[in-house]
Amino acid sequence: MTGFSSLFDGGARALLTDPAVWQAVYDTLTTSFLGMIAAVILGGGFALLLTLFNVRGKTALGFLFMLPTMIPPQVTALSWIGMTGPSSALLKAIGLAPPLGSPQPLYSIGGIALLYGVQNAPLVFLSLRAGLLALPRDGVEAARLSGASSWQVLKDIILPLSLPGFVAGAAIAFVSCVGNFGIPAILGIPASIYTLPTLIYSKFAAFGPNTFADVSLLSGLIAILSVIGLTVEDRVLRGRDYRVIGLSGQVAMFRLGNWRLLGELVLWLAIFITLVMPLTALIASSLAPAYGVPLTPATATLDAYREVLFKQTITRTAFFNSVTLSLTTAIGLLVVTVLTGYYLVRSKSRVAPVVSALAEIPYALPGIVLAVALILVFAAPIPIIGISIYGTIWIILVAYFSSFFAVSLKPVVSAFRQLDPSLEEAARLSGAGFGRRLIDIVVPLVAPAAGASVILVFLIACNELTVSAILWSAGTQTLGVAIYNLDDSGSFNLAAALSVLVVIMVIAMMLVLELMAKRLPKGVVPWRS
Amino acid sequence: ADLVVYTSQPNADAQATIDGFKAANPGVDVEWVRDGTPQIMAKLNAEIAAGNPVADVLLIADTVTFERMKAAGQLLAYKSPEAKNFDASLYDADGYYYSTKLITTGIMYNTQAAMKPTSWADLAKPEAKGLVTMPSPVASGAALIHAQTLAGVDGLGWDYYKDLKANGAVAAGGNGGVLKAVASGEKAYGVVVDYMPIREKAKGAPVEFVFPKEGVSAVTEPAAILSSTKHQDNAKKFIDYLLSENGQKIAAGLGYIPARNGIALPAGYPAREEIKLLPLNAADALKNSEKDVKTFSDIFGTKG
Amino acid sequence: MAKLILNRLSKAFEAGGRPAVNDVSLEVRDGGFLALLGPSGCGKTTVLRMIAGFEQPTDGSILLGDRVLADASDMVAPEHRNMAMVFQSYALWPHMSVADNVGYPLKVRGISGQKREQKIREALNAVRLEAYADRRPADLSGGQRQRVALARCLVTEPDVVLLDEPLANLDRHLRQEMEETFREFHARSGATMIYVTHDQAEAMALATDVAVMSEGRLLQVASPQEIYARPEGRLVGGLVGQGAILKWPAALLENRLLDWDMLQQSLSHTDGQDCADILVRPQDVEIAGEGMAATVTSVLFEGERYALKLALGDEQNLRAFSRQPVQVGDRVSIVIRSAWRL
Amino acid sequence: MAKLILNRLSKAFEAGGRPAVNDVSLEVRDGGFLALLGPSGCGKTTVLRMIAGFEQPTDGSILLGDRVLADASDMVAPEHRNMAMVFQSYALWPHMSVADNVGYPLKVRGISGQKREQKIREALNAVRLEAYADRRPADLSGGQRQRVALARCLVTEPDVVLLDEPLANLDRHLRQEMEETFREFHARSGATMIYVTHDQAEAMALATDVAVMSEGRLLQVASPQEIYARPEGRLVGGLVGQGAILKWPAALLENRLLDWDMLQQSLSHTDGQDCADILVRPQDVEIAGEGMAATVTSVLFEGERYALKLALGDEQNLRAFSRQPVQVGDRVSIVIRSAWRL
Ligand SMILES: Nc1ncnc2c1ncn2[C@@H]1O[C@H](COP(=O)(O)OP(=O)(O)OP(=O)(O)O)[C@@H](O)[C@H]1O
Ligand SMILES: Nc1ncnc2c1ncn2[C@@H]1O[C@H](COP(=O)(O)OP(=O)(O)OP(=O)(O)O)[C@@H](O)[C@H]1O
Ligand SMILES: [Fe+3]
Ligand SMILES: [Mg+2]
Ligand SMILES: [Mg+2]
Fold it and tell me: Which part of the chain is the ABC transporter domain (chains C, D) (predicted)?
């Protein structure tokens, strides 16, 4: 981050008096806030229904719900546009397709927020779910016996007690909306809605002498926005006690009775809209010979797959890079975040909140800014050891570590907040030193959160675009870059085919996890109940 | 690596170019990085700011950028022996950069569209109301050149853009987005670079491309050597290769209008003489680029 | 209100596994006060949890009057049962203050303002926690937490009150006060109360009926006096009171309640055959000049008195009390004033 | 091993607030067995937590031999103290099976394989949970959980064992067995044991020393017999045993241990002035033909006997036992066989 200080010089006044900037701040805030609400409703709803209620097919629902994160945001955006636009096969089929050139309803603040919500719902889902699993069953039961209806129990007991997880999820969702580029780029620009990241991007496009200064100023605004978000989070959580007293490990189950069918319908409908629709669109475009060609058995072709799989050498490199990068980041970060999280929650030091705020900022910064900062820092060889990591995969790894630190940290911190301290005390008295305790007691106890953290980071990193877009060089392409580049250069079907392959790969990896589930601590695999 | 190339050519095209170069110069290990012009420039500028640019050769969309770099002393002058086969307007007299191809910007339309446009003026007609999309100069180098070119044409000018805006045209994103919008029928007409719709049409997409009768603007995707290069010889070889007959044929094979004289145009294009290029003064364009972006943005309400 | 009926209630946690509760039938009359006794793990909590509606019976049913609360297929939700419970683990809500914890059942019932304050204050008064109203449960001692749970349970007017070892973590004085509170609450509200405890004295002192369970089964239900004086079978005999069970020649034991004469006579008629189990409580064993010989094998000071273990000649063991200190290894003579044939 | 010394130990949770533990000085000799008694919330758990190293004293120090374990500025980490504790809330690890919970202290000490298995089995045997080795704590009953915590505490060879109401949730029989286990463990390992309990009989029966606390202060430390027979002050007198404290004319009470004659004499010399507090235990109150008049105000069946509350003429209350049922309101004559001037 040292590079940033060098970025701050001059031009600030001009920029700060530009009404366009303030309009962008406003739009960023509204879209992100609404997007967060949407993510909370969608992800929170799933988490609640799947962990607390007796709906059927939980495993399948949980499994499928994770997948939309894996579809690149631009693809999701495009498929939604396709679905709601004049060429929508769906709308055409029911005769409701709008005429050629009708305004696209998604090109709006609401549309952006909606897609933010869809994209970030799994973040809330995973984070909240970990919190819910830590709830002691008897607390819920006591409330029900007090006469509280399911709704009241939810409102008075479950949500307040799982508030750390809930708020953590909402906070990551908010911050990642603030930093999102793909969705406002596709949905916002046509409607002249600029968010700070798209504004920054356009600054880079018209590269001038003031660009670095302008961009750092805008980045500063983003940082301020996310710090404001975090302060709100901190306020909400401050001064309360979430430490579970007594034994957790069993989750109270509500019966839905007659509502069950309705609940299940809603869940599957949500899966259909957030997953099946964009995925179908994705598969359709991967099979189409060219964009806009109607897909029929006659026109369908596997050429795109052939090209991606066998001709483009970049595919294999990208798969290899992304998977190793994502796994390394996810697991490496877990180690870091468990330690940091432990420190943040247990330490009474005043430095702690500052550390946690600092951790959050890189995630909110648009990738392009972070990447440029890293280049400024690392392009020259590192002073003492004299090695340059610029141009190697290591710089991307460094970028991922700093960028996803917050994603990894949040669920873990919230789980620590709920931990009954006496569990750790008992381990200490057993003679277990810090490391020992961490491995044997603390980490398994926060397993659902740790699992959520690893999976979240993996999913996001696997698809990461903006950071690696600037930092990659020959041989270090990532999947996100590969897909984006294919798409950007007009090879839409190749991009779609590669995306489909990525989704398949993720499903395969999730299945492997599913097979290993029995050997992992309880709650790690988020779709299992 | 013996040579590092930063380019904004599409992946497959970049790969083909590099492969061709390698075939002509065996033993040279080339690394290349492909991204959109803005990203490439962000990356490069950051590297320069950090004092360690990695690239040797730059192969990106427009002369304007190169003019700026030349002024900043970031380019290396090199007189290529191949230059004699090129129109003098297509390379820098001092040898700082060489155009490699012509990418024109014209009009594409969806085959379902009611009106078949033949001129820029058609897009401002009531038939096209709300149906026009174009790339934004903030996202595409070609789009900026295009806007600056049309702005200088009598009878069009910035008023033309105001008319377009009044007619409900939108300006957003890059050329890829325009292509998708028109191919999918979301919009009927698009202002777009030539090779995209021509290629897609060949693959069966329901689109047509026209060279409007007033003429088209063009970017030339020039190549240049960075003054900081550590592989001067290879870089020069690369420039020579791009300009060579062989290199130019490969460009044509990929669907671009080659810059070198005497090479046949790819399928789907009219004869070279029929393509009327609108004039543009590169020096003015450079001087005014920020102002022009702002003018455009003010008209279309885009920011930046 | 109405009778609470458990009808052949069973619960197995794993399908096919050993049931935690096995075919328990029981009626608690309206306004009754039932104490549930039994060794650790015998299924007491599980019975309470089924009554409260947290576990579904695998078999049998639970009725309140003629309303079926639960059977193997259907269940009234806990929130519609108007019951209250003190959980063995307290189940306090860590995010609420003590006052909010206690007031929550009122809040849910829509009672607010002055009246709620008033009731919370009364309940906290009853458990001597007035001064702690604003604390968080995490900052309380174990016994204080338990008292918060008690206060929360008694703050409303439930039809049925379920108490799962509600006084286990309290000292004797508080315990007596709390027992008093229960008694008053019971008298005032007329609620049906079911009380799980390990402290028999507590059970006897509070309950109108005592039920004894073992390994998921109900062994005996009777009034405290009855179950103490006339336990059925070895298990109940062993569980209620600190009695020792002896094998005794059965020849002349006609009555079930036996005195020393009968016991002695029977002893002298040993024909080596039939033996009966007799229950001898320590307070009925008197260390006297005459009587049977016994050796002291252990002596424990209990404050009020010493608790002795005595070995009889034939390797059988007996408990007794003594107000005077005795030494391990002393040989004493004892008289069994009273015994009960099981 | 060495003496455990608490030296003017204090702990206030909020700076400036009322201290939870206040100036407690105490020595537990090496291999001693100290029972800590006191009303709910008096600071017992806090003392244990400071000894274990979970709370830092705000003042004073803790020493084991000459090693300073903790003072207001510094602290040896709990993991380096070689202590074991049964937590009031059990603190079982929900993600481990019962056997793993119990075996964890062994695992940490690097004991593995056969030997570990063996030790785990023994510990589980001691708490009668052999059959539950593979269960998760969440699937156990309250008492079973407590026993797992016990087994975990006793599986290693700690220097100091801290027991926070370790038997509160067990039935009497198990309790007696567990007490036996403690006694054996104590004899075998020679560990210093500190035992918090509300059950005085338990404390008296197990401990070599009894310490009584109230409101954070240490009131008295003595052997069980001593503290029972000669409590110091109203507070200890009221806490130990179920005695009632009476105001009695002090004129002729010269001894501290008083018999009926002395009490009667003193009574007849009432000159309305000086009154002394005397402690009268229920077992010392005999319902007899002659003596003082009293009215029965409450009768509780306790199994073995009835516990009575008696009102004396001057509105003072007394407790007594009776083996025969008595009615509330009965007027009886009582003799106080023995009393203790506080
Ligand atoms: N974390 C805390 N913050 C503030 N006060 C506390 C905290 N923990 C305990 N206390 C208070 O300190 C006092 C002593 O508590 P402690 O737990 O030591 O009592 P105890 O003697 O163990 O009682 P019990 O028999 O009920 O378990 C109590 O009044 C309690 O409310
Ligand atoms: N969730 C569960 N899954 C499997 N077995 C269980 C579960 N809960 C309890 N059990 C078992 O059922 C039996 C009865 O348990 P319950 O909690 O009813 O005992 P209890 O009588 O309340 O004992 P305690 O006095 O120790 O609290 C025990 O053996 C226990 O191990
Ligand atoms: Fe470009
Ligand atoms: Mg129980
Ligand atoms: Mg305590």
Answer: 4-240
